[in-house]
């Protein structure tokens, strides 16, 4: 059981958790979700005891805790199997066991100590067996295989493994320790689908509490039985599956946005009213009451719509038409051939998605193309004036942790001014004090953002991107995608995120069984095409393409008709607007006239000759009352017309 009581934590001004109470029962499977920087990792670190909260506590009792950090774990440099044993505490035990055995064999049969040695041995062995003991190595090999390692990996050195594989090693160690509470921070980011399935199977048998952080929808949907959303310092719990949570959350968000939009509209309107009439002394009360209304309003807090952010990054000069040509490239690891004799050409302006099942060799191909790894054979050549940059998960890890965000951003993109850089950083969600944060404290998603920011800033005309959206929340993905859509250079990208690839790419290359298949179209077209090819292969009739010219004729006529209707609608709206504008003008003239008349009456009512005529005073008072009523209702009418006018404007 995990019991959080009045948990609060802030980093400077930034509140991460505020007075959180949460009791997590045995066997709970919690999907912890939230935007980048919301505090997911922070919460896991508090539970794991790595971080002390400002107030309150997170108690875990005597339960053992295993925490898989989001950042690459430190593994040491020894043999993999030794590392796994060490981490399970087995190495120490087996040393003690051998020592006990030595003592037993060295002491004579009648030695007085023998009894004690035997007892010691028994105790140590019991502990040893509890941890898997003699079964440990076979189990460890099973786990390594499940996580995608080749046989013999146990004998290799930890230091030989690169980024993603090191993270799998850390995961293997954690699973073998089999702790009561498992805290997994983005465990799926470095896994292919087979390993993921294996992991899901393994975790299903876990008996204790599990909390996962993941931006992977499928994984969360399969694994989590409840969702906890962390936002604005608070945790909201949803006792349901991830899919159900998404529906509920969207409904809730929609409702919040609707209320907020209505409120914004009202605020705008009051402001227009105040602007329009603030200098009319006679109506000071009307204006004042509205200003008070504004002050009293509790502004409804919603996330700002991300649509407003549109960033364009500086680009290098155009490259030549030929961007990259790979000839007869090949890659082998140990005895295993990933691909061989591959040819690939990419031309200027192409936005290429490289797809394929996991393990097909997508990342390897990108590493070879970008020169991060040498090809075993053949060559990779770049065309005239090509300036390329390569992004992979490791890019975020290889930032300088001692720098601040701002210092790191300054290292690149000499072509733009500081002010422009600041602006761009702001649009990329680092504003105010955030840019002075040291890289070392950034959340996983924030680090990815900095790495992507640097990449987009370095003057390039060819981007090679390997899974750039891992760690990124939806909002950041959107912004990044829009920046890429505006990018004028050439693009080669691996991503398992369909929504990201859709309408971003114009060519798809599939890598399958060591060969490349070219689909010169966008991503949906590729899916469709592949599906129909599959049907064809399965012997089914494929859908006959329609007569092309007929299709074009119909679509041309359609678009003419659409344009005509749009023009008609536009004209109608202009006419409506004009009518409203005229009405508002007439109304304002009447208000002005009536207010002047009111002023005149008030002045008259101060004059002695008027005051002495009681009949005159009475008729003036009656007129005054009527005028006052008319003016008040005219103001109300003004507001109505103003609102209608705004809604017509919005329809354009
Ligand atoms: N030591 C620190 N000093 C200042 N700010 C910090 C510190 N540690 C974390 N932060 C900030 O606290 C926020 C929460 O970070 P956390 O790593 O918990 O986010 P997260 O929800 O895990 O995000 P992501 O999805 O990107 O992994 C971030 O904005 C981060 O920059
Ligand atoms: Mg995190």
Give the structure's gist in a few sentences.
With 652 residues, this protein is of the alpha/beta class.
Record keyword descriptors for this entry.
652 residues, alpha/beta, Rossmann fold, 6-stranded mixed sheet, binds adenosine-5'-triphosphate, binds magnesium ion
Tally of separate domains: 4
How helical, in percent, are the residues? 40-55%
- What ions, cofactors and ligands are bound? adenosine-5'-triphosphate, magnesium ion
SS element count, helices: 21
Oligomer: single chain
* Cα distance spanning the termini: 57 Å
Spatial sequence of strands, sheet with the most strands:
5-6-7-3-8-9
Largest sheet: 6 strands, mixed
Look at the structure and name the CATH superfamily of the largest domain: P-loop containing nucleotide triphosphate hydrolases
Radius of gyration: 34 Å
Shape: globular
Q: How many β-strand runs? A: 18
Architecture of the largest domain, according to CATH?
3-Layer(aba) Sandwich
CATH fold name of the largest domain: Rossmann fold
CATH class of the largest domain: Alpha Beta
Overall pLDDT, averaged?
Answer: 85
